[in-house]
Amino acid sequence: MGKLIYSMITSLDGYVADERGDFAWGEPDEEAHRYVNELTRSVGTYLYGRRMYETMVYWETADTLPGQPPYVLDWARQWQAADKIVYSTTLDSVSSARTRLEREFDPAAVRRLKETAGHDLTVDGPGLAAHAIRAGLVDEYHQFLAPVVVGGGTRFFPDHVRLNLETVGIRQFANGWLHLRHRPKP
């Protein structure tokens, strides 16, 4: 059985993007990037909403760009080797290998996927994650806190949801980032 993990880079005030949709303030440095690579080796399937998929599809060809450092090539190859499911009512097609398009998020189908998976899964993007959180499907929450306050934008956690979580890991990085890992309390 696989775990469903929700993981994103957030500002200290809890946003994954600012009010203009910008998230450049959250670009990981080499140390954080290498850590994410190791952390996600257990992931075999990524669940994306349209906007997150459109951001992440860059990795389909990132390994062909000249001068990429080894840790970037490592992440690109990991991403390419994983399955991707994109939930969108507006996309006509997907442009990456190992990717399928679904029109709606079905909690029962995701529950079955978790039960039969021999690897972990991630739900990426706060809109799609809100559906998984409300359905009680998320097994772990990973926040990478960047030392910046953006004052508003797209929140990591959805509104009107109460979660009782236990902290199961904290890691500090030289650049001031923190990785916080939480699980729902039993």
Automatic annotation (TrEMBL):
Residue span(s) of domain Bacterial bifunctional deaminase-reductase C-terminal: 3-178
SUPFAM superfamilies: Dihydrofolate reductase-like
Gene3D superfamilies named in the record: Dihydrofolate Reductase, subunit A (3.40.430.10)
GO process terms (BP): riboflavin biosynthetic process
Molecular functions (GO terms): 5-amino-6-(5-phosphoribosylamino)uracil reductase activity
PANTHER family: 2,5-DIAMINO-6-RIBOSYLAMINO-4(3H)-PYRIMIDINONE 5'-PHOSPHATE REDUCTASE (PTHR38011:SF11), DIHYDROFOLATE REDUCTASE FAMILY PROTEIN (AFU_ORTHOLOGUE AFUA_8G06820) (PTHR38011)
This protein's name: Deaminase
Organism of origin: Bailinhaonella thermotolerans
